[in-house]
């Protein structure tokens, strides 16, 4: 038992790096995020591969963020990230697809990646941080795209400050008290172990099915995450990773919120075989949100929006642009 405990603790330290890591180009190792002038001062259009990282201070925290697509105007779309994610964990095809028509902004949570401060210990705290960030950016109203843990944060934002949110896209996520959410750490560590012993990125197991289509989609996704070879973000720390796992555990044990008060349009998306946040949670969300639509992709798991990005992005843009 002592040996097992010791092995598990050592595994924790390794796990935080494994879940966040995306192989870095050997000719350009990360030295953390490079801070640059605001996007408004840049003369040419950029992509997710090249967009600079900036910082803004809100509530005593220096938030690292990236934005692009400002020239298109309209309501900004704020991306809210998954467990252990830093800026470099967003799929370039999804970000660039949204940015082709919208102003896209995403940021590192407090104490994660290049953002300063002590990591938030609850979904509610993360929502408060996101609200502070959004207001510091000067946005009066935003659309939210929350993936996994980010979808939980999005729900809290909509409940805390409903006037701040115009529309939401909730992908691979679930409500407070949702089935299997409190035990996501077990699935996470199991798939991290599988990744470690097979020499694969754990996201290949966590985000994608083990069918031929799922395996190939996972490989393609992980390759896309390597496209940004310079000025990459800092990886998540063990402390921040464990804080997020605890936040998810507590969220999964909470009493369900009254989502009937969320009247804004919501687009709920998932794969049919999500192991991290069981797919039935997406169906539950769609039932409880009075103005929602639901899309479940076949032969896919937690990362369905990345596997089916070519279909998802146009549908998401249609949702955001509809009246």
What are the defining features of this structure?
8-stranded mixed β-sheet; 39% helix; alpha/beta; single chain; Rossmann fold; 14% strand; 11 helices; 323 residues
Q: Note the overall shape.
A: globular
For the record, the count of structural domains works out to 1
How much helical structure, as a percent, in the residues? 25-40%
Category by helix and strand content: alpha/beta
Indicate the CATH class: Alpha Beta
How are the strands of the largest sheet arranged?
1-2-4-3-5-6-7-8
Q: How large is the share of residues in beta strands?
A: 5-15%
Task: Determine the CATH superfamily.
Answer: Alpha/Beta hydrolase fold, catalytic domain
Total strands: the figure is 8
Q: How is the CATH topology named?
A: Rossmann fold
Q: Mind telling me which CATH architecture this is?
A: 3-Layer(aba) Sandwich
Protein name: Aminoacrylate hydrolase RutD
Signal peptide: 1-25
Enzyme class: hydrolase
Keywords: Hydrolase, Signal
Quick gist of this model?
Residues 1-25 form the signal peptide. By secondary structure, this protein is of the alpha/beta class. It is built from eleven helices and eight strands.
């Amino acid at each position: 038992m002592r040996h097992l405990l010791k092995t598990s603790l050592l595994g924790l330290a390794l796990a935080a790096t494994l879940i966040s890591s995306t192989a870095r180009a050997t000719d350009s190792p990360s030295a953390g995020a490079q801070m640059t002038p605001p996007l408004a001062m840049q003369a040419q259009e950029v992509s997710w591969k090249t967009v600079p990282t900036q910082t803004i201070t809100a509530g005593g925290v220096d938030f690292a963020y990236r934005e692009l697509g400002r020239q298109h105007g309209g309501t900004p779309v704020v991306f809210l990230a998954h467990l252990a994610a830093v800026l470099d964990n967003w799929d370039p095809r999804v970000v660039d697809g949204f940015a082709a028509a919208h102003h896209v902004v995403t940021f590192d949570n407090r104490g994660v990646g290049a953002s300063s401060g002590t990591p938030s210990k609850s979904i509610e705290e993360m929502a408060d941080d996101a609200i502070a960030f959004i207001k510091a950016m000067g946005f009066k109203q935003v659309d939210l795209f929350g993936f996994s843990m980010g979808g939980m944060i999005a729900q809290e934002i909509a409940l805390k400050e409903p006037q701040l949110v115009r529309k939401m896209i909730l992908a691979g996520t679930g409500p407070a008290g949702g089935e299997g959410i409190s035990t996501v750490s077990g699935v996470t560590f199991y798939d991290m172990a599988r990744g470690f012993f097979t020499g694969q990125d754990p996201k290949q197991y966590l985000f994608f099915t083990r069918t031929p289509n799922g395996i190939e989609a996972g490989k393609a996704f992980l390759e896309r995450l390597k496209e940004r070879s310079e000025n990459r973000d800092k990886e998540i720390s063990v402390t921040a990773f464990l804080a997020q796992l605890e936040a998810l555990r507590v969220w999964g044990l909470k009493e369900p919120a009254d989502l009937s008060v969320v009247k804004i349009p919501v687009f709920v998306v998932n794969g049919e075989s999500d192991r991290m946040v069981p797919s039935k949670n997406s169906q539950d969300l769609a039932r409880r949100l009075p103005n929602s639509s639901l899309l479940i992709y076949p032969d896919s798991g937690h990362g369905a929006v990345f596997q089916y990005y070519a279909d998802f992005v146009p549908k998401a843009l249609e949702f955001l642009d509809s009246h």
